[in-house]
Amino acid sequence: MTTTTDDVDDPREPTVPSEPEASSGPDEPIVLSERSLLGWWRQTAVLTGRQLLVAFRDLPTLVQILIFPALTMLMFKVVLGDAVGKVTGVDSAFGIVPLVVLTSTMFGSAVSATRLNMERRSGLLSRLYVLPINRGADFSARVLAESLRALLTTIALVAAGFLIGFRFTQGVGPAIGIFVVAVAYATAFAMLTLALAVNAAPGAPLVSYLGMVSTLLMFFNSGFSPVDMYPGWLQPIVANQPMTPAIDLMRSFAAGGPIMGNLIKVGIWTVLMMGAATYPALQGYRKAAAGR
């Protein structure tokens, strides 16, 4: 039996290795599309961890959003004493604690907006924008980090409030409602400040503007004194500015009182702030990241 040369491989020809078959074993990493919902969520979770790590490693930020509000709470209690309680019949701690909690969330959002502008000027936003990740993951991570930071800050400040007489007198459900209101307010305000940060000029004194607004809201609300103790022309403004219904609702959850009216107002303000901020924030973030 004879064989032809076509039937035998030429030893002089190089052997081309065959491509390995795709492995589907348990150790094979799963690559998620950057456009998929699961991919967006996982990338958001990773970037949220980064935001929280940066925030809690910044000692001045911790002092501003945690230590300083706790000392302010104690100062208000010492200075005001029971003057508000004698007028309203409710211990002033039930107004001071919600007031300080909401104020802390506002100043914390201003710090986050400042950090975003710093990362914008350094080029970090641009580097994140060109990575193969969901384009909205970094922005959603910043908002989620603000929500989690507000929750942790509220827990700490409420615990400090127990030293000046704050208590949960209405049960577990209303107590949880206090934290829900604080987080909802913080999330809406954070979206608003981030929208301003990405649409403002890189060198704009954003902290000064936001600090001025936060200070005005802090001093003209129902946390210090009842609305009817303000001048008549100012009462409608004080009663309907964002902080007042949130403070009154948190006070009702803690000490008892009307809920539905303030709950509706809080819901309206939350939806308005988020609705007004979402599109400008996303568009401004895209321009800020891609424009460098």
List the defining traits of the structure above.
292 residues
Beta percentage is under 5%
What structural category arises from helix and sheet content?
mainly alpha
Task: Supply Rg.
Answer: 27 Å
Task: Give the overall average pLDDT.
Answer: 81
- Straight-line distance between termini: 76 Å
Biggest beta sheet attributes? none
Relative helix content: 55-70%
TL;DR of this structure?
Helix content is 70%, strand content 0%. With 292 residues, the chain is mainly alpha-helical. The radius of gyration is 27 Å and the shape is elongated.
Model description:
This protein is 70% helix and 0% strand. The N and C termini lie far apart (76 Å). The longest helix has 31 residues, at 260-290. The protein has 11 helices and no strands. It has helices at residues 37-57, 59-80, 83-88, 93-122, 124-130, 137-161, 172-199, 206-219, 235-240, 243-255, 260-290. It has one domain. The protein is elongated, with a radius of gyration of 27 Å. The chain has 292 residues and is mainly alpha-helical.
List the helices and strands and how they pair.
Elements: H1 37-57, H2 59-80, H3 83-88, H4 93-122, H5 124-130, H6 137-161, H7 172-199, H8 206-219, H9 235-240, H10 243-255, H11 260-290
